Amino acid sequence: MKQSTFLLLLLPIIVLACAALYWGGGYTSYNLVYIFCFVFLFFFAVFSSSTAWQKIIQVAIYALIMVAQILINTYFIRPFEESRLIYDLCRLLGVLIVFIPFLVQRRFFFHSIDNLAAPVVGEQSVLPYSLLFYDRDAVVSNIERVKKAGQVLSKVRLDEIIQNLPRHSSFSYVNNGSLTDEYFQKAYGALDNGYIYLVVAKTKTVPSEVIGLFTNKQYNHVSISFDPELHTVISYTGGEKVLPPGLNPELLERLTRNNDSAVMVYQLSANSGQKRIVLDKIQEINMQGSAYNLLGLALKFSYRPNIMFCSQFVYTMLEIAGLNYFERNAAHVKPTDFVELDYHRKLEFVYEITLRETNSGSGEKAYGQKNS
Fold first, then answer.
1. Which CATH architecture has domain 181-371?
2. Where do the domains of the chain lie?
3. 285-326 pLDDT, tens per residue?
4. CA distance 100 to 74
5. Which of 1, 59, 196, 320 could disulfide-link to 270, CB 3.0 to 4.6 Å?
């Protein structure tokens, strides 16, 4: 079955199911939708051209997701029926998790044997081995990704994610004025140094690990700065329960506070006019308001202009000043794209900062820095 056919079948089903759930669905309705989604994906997997092992793995994963959905519905949604506000938020959560098995299908099982070229005369003796190794590598890769997803979505982290959800909004601005006059004074004072700075980070935080499930990368955060000392680092963040999610200032110490965290700092040539365009736009967003594009991580869509995630924000800022050195829809840009898609070597590596445990066994932490 072609992926385009799958999506055409999927879209109206999901839209109707989500609408029915949110506006009139009860406990039983949610469970029925989860079961229906499992049955749909079960038949899709069984009748696909994947290998037997791939089909078994897919069905097993979809079954585990269905069980998890029913448990979330039972223990996180149903108990709050008496509290209207919390119940509405929980119902929204129940709608959102409908998408999980389909996201898993798109992310982990998108490539199938249908995409492989048919054998031609003279290649029959070689292609079976190629298929064998393809199947083996694909299965091993999918198993590793599922293991990683299980580790990231452990009970403690899942509880933290659920508790943090009410702070976010993907439809209205919740952050306003998080950047102070002092920040803009520092930033405007650095307009003439000839560079804008990209900070690509491996923060090892819970949000970063969850984003890693979608990007399959270790470095899952990117920021921009106007000065080389990184006193003006900003990006779209969750605010760490101090500031509302959206456009926020960042401290280098916060980006590298967890063990095995690291930041890679790059500089990109930019004249004062280009930096001013970016900074003026940031000042405008700061006044209008912003929000973190949580849904956009999966759906690749922004409901309003100032609702973005980190890499979407950085690319947008570069684009409006004519500093973008690769072409891509901003909603599809990953943090590592800024380095991996730099085919014309526009970036200059400046330095790296890492945080590691010391060898003394005392549990103390030490910074390591590597200059270009």
1. Alpha-Beta Complex (3.90)
2. 3-152, 181-371
3. 999 999 999 888 877 888 899 999 999 999 999 999 999 999
4. 17
5. 196
Indicate the pairing of strand 262-269 with strand 246-249.
unpaired
Burial 42-81 (b: 16+ CB within 10 A, else e): bebbeebebbeebbebbbebbeebbebbbebbeebbeeee
Query: What phi, psi does 352 have (nearest 5°)?
Result: -125, 140
Please tell me whether the overall predicted TM-score, pTM, comes out greater than 0.70 for this model: no
Contact 307, 331 (CB under 8 A): no
Sequence-distant (≥ 6) Cβ neighbours of residue 85 within 8 angstroms: none
280 token code pair: 């003026």
Do β-strands 246-249 and 221-225 pair in parallel, antiparallel, or remain unpaired? unpaired
- Predicted confidence (pLDDT) per residue in 251-265, tens digit: 888 887 777 778 999
